[in-house]
Design goal:
With 314 residues, the chain is of the alpha/beta class. It has a domain at 5-137 and 224-308: Rossmann fold. Helix content is 44%, strand content 15%. It is built from 13 helices and eight strands. The chain has an eight-stranded mixed sheet with strand order 2-1-8-7-3-6-4-5, sandwiched between helices. 35% of the residues are buried. Residues 36-244 form the Haem-binding uptake Tiki superfamily ChaN domain. It holds the Pfam family Cofac_haem_bdg. This is Haem-binding uptake Tiki superfamily ChaN domain-containing protein. InterPro entries: Cofac_haem-bd_dom (IPR007314).
């Protein structure tokens, strides 16, 4: 049972970029990672959203991973941060066949792997737990974003067999949120630009793939709890991967843990505005601004985009 101290605790602002203040919105209860794990022990799939590269998110994920393992050692770690076409390379590392740098290079690990995800993968490796490369292949996602869903008809049979059936399954609320986030006007589908539609389909391919990979993991490891790590946009408000997971397997219990930036201009966090973001939320310090110079930001974004267009989709 949860500690009685949970009900008595006071929610305070995170003091460093490593801190996370966990709250159960339903009751305004402040929790430790261990108390959160006690509430999640019987959940089939625990989805922890993150702001990529935020140390508060990653430290919480690691603490929750170990707390859940102590209560329920049958655990699978599923990660957006690895693509399914690199599962073999990831497995090779987990099985001691290759070294870490080899895995990072061969599996296309994210640039912040060592700083953000190493502790989670190492814990799984030490405990001999499966780690699932849950995301869709990056090249396929990028080319769907350029050419649309029809691009999938030309991918290799090897990749096609690993992608989900109905890879562009959708929910209206997620479409609305996505279009608002990227600045699109709320127009009918038939007037939406093709480029915007293709970008959205690329997003759906990611979400459907992650949902399917989670369900495959449950099938391959019966009775195991799946801990899934993902960017918060894929999971908050129960949308994205979470909504598609529930559509594909309504019988599976899913809990969402979502990050919220603690406002810098108030002493008390606006709980009421964030209650719907997750079954549990955790407050973290805002990330520092990347740029203050608008022109420098524009050039940086342009450079990033140009790098992404170097590869062809023929």
């Amino acid at each position: 049972m949860p500690s009685s101290n949970a009900q008595e605790a006071t929610l305070s602002a995170p003091q460093t970029q490593y801190d996370a203040r966990i709250v159960q919105p339903e009751s305004n209860t402040v929790l430790t990672p261990e108390e959160l794990a006690q509430r999640l022990v019987n959940t089939d799939v625990v989805v922890v959203g993150e702001y990529h590269g935020h140390h508060g998110s990653h430290l919480l994920q690691s603490r929750l991973q170990t707390a859940l393992y102590r209560l329920r050692p049958e655990q699978v770690l599923a990660m957006e941060q690895f693509n399914l076409d690199h599962q073999d390379e990831l497995n090779g590392y987990l099985q001691g066949e290759i070294g870490e740098t080899e895995m990072i290079e061969d599996a296309g690990a994210w640039d912040n792997y060592r700083a953000s995800y190493r502790p989670l993968v190492e814990f799984a490796r030490q405990q001999n737990l499966p780690v699932i490369a849950a995301n869709a292949p990056a090249d396929v996602v990028r080319c769907v974003g350029r050419k649309g869903p029809e691009y999938l008809s030309g991918v290799s049979d090897t990749i096609k067999q690993k992608l989900p059936t109905d890879p562009f399954m959708d929910t209206p609320a997620y479409r609305e949120k996505f279009m608002a986030a990227i600045g699109a006007s709320h127009q009918a589908d038939d007037t939406m630009s093709q480029r915007m539609e293709n970008t959205y389909n690329a997003q759906l391919l990611r979400d459907n793939t992650m949902a399917t990979r989670i369900l495959q993991a449950r099938k391959e490891h019966p009775g195991h709890q799946v801990l899934h790590l993902t960017g918060t946009f894929h999971s908050e408000e129960g949308l994205g991967t979470v909504a598609l997971l529930k559509q594909r397997a309504p019988e599976v219990s899913v809990v969402v843990v979502s990050p919220v930036f603690w406002p810098s201009d108030v002493n008390e966090p606006p709980l009421n505005q964030n209650r719907e973001k997750g079954d549990f939320i955790y407050f973290i310090e805002p990330l520092p601004d990347e740029f203050r110079d608008a022109e420098r930001e524009r050039k940086a974004m342009q450079a990033r985009f140009s790098r992404s267009t170097d590869k062809t989709c023929d």
